[in-house]
Write a structure and sequence with these properties.
There is one protein chain. By secondary structure, this protein is of the alpha+beta class. The protein has 8 helices and 5 strands, in the order H-H-E-E-H-H-E-H-E-E-H-H-H. It has a 5-stranded antiparallel beta sheet, sandwiched between helices. Strand 4 and strand 5 form a beta hairpin. Helix 1 runs antiparallel to helix 2, helix 3 runs antiparallel to helix 5 and helix 6 crosses helix 8. The protein is elongated, with a radius of gyration of 27 Å.
Length: 259
Amino acid sequence: METPSVDGDGSVREEWRTVALGEMHSMLATAVPLEVLLDTIVHRAAERVGDSASAAITLRLRQQPTVAAATDERSAECDRVEQAAGAGPCLEATVHGGLITVPEIAAADRWAQWREASLAAGFGSAAALPASLAEEPDLELAINLYRPEPGEWDEATLADVQAFAEDAGRALAVAARVEEQARVNADLKQAMASRTTIDQALGVIMAQNRCSPEEAFAILRRASQHRNAKLRDVAAQIVARVSGSEPHSANEFRDRPGT
């Protein structure tokens, strides 16, 4: 049974959208991991259809599709079969940018492998709703909806999930950029720490061998190759041996309080 469009107290549809968007915005504000955001999105999409519905999200990042989230293993497996076969409603909807409905999976004359997997999972009908994200060319998203019963899909329900898919796509694009920036920042911190440790080790080698910076670096590099260890690790061992403590940077980055 699909969620009704309205109830006696007002618009159920508007309440569902408000709650779903509010939840996404809260997650963006607290920088939750992408997988948590995806899990929330897919469950909200299925909720709009009804208690018996399932859903899965396919993401195509830089032309590489993946099943990013699902409400259950049945829908996830159907989408995995679809991707392995390279054919199915979700992939086709993503490529062509349009809604695809399959009112009766058993009667579908395309996508044989996906059809068989969906029937084996106990689904009677499906719908694929892609997000239109012209401003995010490297990101494509589509939500696959599944129901156990065959039949036409309610237009209002599909319109709601379609709009939600586009909202979700934009939210995911923001979350992905935040996550990528966090990785870049972490890499920069590591690079700065490594550079400081290596410089400290070079100072030790120069003092011990009375050599130039270039010669000290050559000595450190040979030691790294001989031990089959990273340059920074060898440098850290040298500094620790001389100073009696782990190397550190006086200018080490520290996170702000509350982050």
